[in-house]
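Project outcomes to date are best conveyed with an example. Our students and postdoctoral researchers have been running inverse folding experiments weekly, and each run begins with a structure described purely in tokens. The record below, which covers 484 residues, was selected by the lab manager from last quarter's runs and is presented without edits.
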């Protein structure tokens, strides 16, 4: 329980209309969940405006409203602000006693690699003897306790509650993915980062950001907001990396495989089970595959070193970690067919995975790619995904991913426009995803490789707005056994 006046931020300009001494028992963004004692935030959104639900919130017992304008005449106090989303982050931080300042909060942003980096950092610090938290696309964790994840980055109230729970449970670190949507929507407002990292930037989310420049600038905002006592770590091999550091007040560090940088790595050997990697002149075998994972491992090493850990201990613990679920996950069939399940759902991520496979295989076997694109998302990347698949695979099966409320056939038609004419004969369209995977197995020979891309760790398929159980790895294993 807090008084309203005690949680109003010093960093946000506001005007109080009414009594600021009311007791606030909880914070709420969704008017349907308001209970007596709630402080309700009226946030203008992309599809709905929270100001339209202020009456409902008051009916359900809200004791105060934070809004950008007063829409109703009421006895309960209004906190009027210029930016309700920014204010919500600042107020949520104060309500939960500034939890991000009571542990080392590390956030990673970028198109690809966020989940792997955040997850490996969490697992590594657990191995190093810390109790750590995780906020990711796949799951949220407090130590080893798991709770499901609904967003890559939750809204500000949920983040601060989760961080507060981590602090109460004795966590000393939290590692989180920071999405461009979350930055733009100010879900991370009010958080104090010890370190922010940048992985890479490529085509994604232009359905939301409209232009690549706007997408890039959303990512950059994370670094613009870092305080002088924080650390900024960027991938120098990505041309956008140094852009992130412009106007950044934090202490700056870089990592790279090719450029001169503060942290360097080199791939010495690799196969489908892992790679021998040299990091700052120390060699070790890591259970992750591909150049993109070399960047991920290096960023994890650099982050942990910058947080003060011993480099030899870091490498010993890091080299013992298993791959992240649904990220270049290896599975074999009774027939000797190799299956690789990967979350690759952007052209760049798909290209990275296919180039990695082609760099390891002997070329005496087929590479069959099963790939789709999500519905109600960026249309521009659909033909590019198909083009990349056709150019780098021996056979391609275009199929459904999560069509959501779109027609799967329309999505596949969009994808097919990207297939070069010389590759038409190698491409099939099979709308049903399980049938597509089953077909890939049926046309494969022993030692052939099937990449199943797009869903990775997901255990559902969303069709017409309904989520149905679906796990690419399980579907591959089941159908491989049936076709034995």
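After processing, the design step wrote out the following sequence:
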């Amino acid at each position: 329980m807090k008084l309203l006046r005690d949680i109003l931020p010093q960093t946000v300009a506001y005007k109080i209309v009414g009594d600021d001494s009311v007791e606030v028992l909880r914070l709420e963004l969704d008017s349907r969940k308001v209970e007596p004692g709630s402080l309700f935030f009226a946030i203008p959104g992309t599809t709905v405006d929270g100001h339209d639900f202020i009456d409902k919130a008051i009916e359900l017992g809200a004791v105060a409203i934070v809004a950008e304008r007063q829409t109703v005449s009421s006895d309960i106090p209004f906190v009027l602000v210029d930016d309700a989303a920014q204010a919500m982050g600042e107020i949520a931080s104060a309500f939960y006693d500034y939890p991000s300042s009571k542990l080392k909060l590390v956030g990673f942003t970028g198109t690809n690699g966020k989940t792997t980096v955040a997850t490996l950092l969490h697992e590594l610090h657990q191995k190093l003897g810390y109790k750590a938290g995780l906020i990711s696309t796949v799951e949220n964790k407090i130590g080893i306790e798991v709770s499901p994840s609904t967003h890559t980055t939750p809204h500000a109230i949920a983040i601060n509650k989760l961080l507060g729970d981590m602090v109460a449970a004795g966590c000393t670190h939290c590692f989180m993915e920071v999405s461009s949507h979350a930055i733009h929507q100010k879900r991370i407002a009010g958080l104090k980062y010890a370190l922010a990292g940048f992985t890479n930037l490529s085509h994604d989310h232009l359905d939301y950001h409209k232009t690549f420049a706007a997408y890039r600038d959303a990512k950059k905002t994370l670094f613009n907001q870092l305080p002088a006592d924080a650390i900024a770590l960027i991938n120098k091999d990505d041309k956008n990396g140094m852009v992130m550091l412009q106007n950044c007040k934090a202490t700056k560090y870089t990592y790279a495989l090719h450029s001169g940088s503060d942290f360097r790595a080199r791939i010495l050997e690799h196969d489908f089970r892992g790679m021998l990697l040299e990091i700052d002149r120390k060699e070790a075998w890591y259970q992750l595959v591909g150049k993109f994972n070399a960047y991920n491992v290096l960023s994890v090493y650099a982050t942990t070193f910058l947080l003060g850990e011993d480099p030899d201990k870091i490498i010993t613990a890091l080299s013992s970690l298993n791959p992240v679920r649904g990220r270049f996950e290896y599975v074999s069939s009774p027939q000797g067919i190799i299956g690789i399940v990967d979350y690759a759902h952007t052209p760049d991520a798909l290209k990275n995975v296919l180039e990695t496979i082609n760099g390891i295989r002997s070329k005496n076997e087929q590479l069959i790619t099963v790939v789709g694109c999500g519905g109600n998302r960026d249309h521009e990347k659909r033909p590019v995904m198909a083009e990349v698949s056709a150019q780098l695979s021996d056979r391609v099966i275009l199929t459904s991913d999560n069509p959501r409320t779109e027609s799967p056939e329309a999505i596949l038609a969009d994808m097919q426009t990207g297939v070069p004419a010389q590759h038409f004969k190698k491409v099939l369209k099979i709308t049903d995803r399980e049938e597509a995977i089953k077909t890939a197995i049926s046309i494969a020979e022993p030692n052939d490789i099937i990449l199943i891309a797009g869903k990775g760790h997901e255990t559902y398929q969303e069709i017409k707005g309904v989520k149905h159980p679906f796990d690419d790895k399980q579907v591959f294993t089941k159908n491989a056994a049936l076709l034995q």
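The chain has three domains: 2-95, 99-318, 329-482. The radius of gyration is 24 Å. The training component of this project remains on track.
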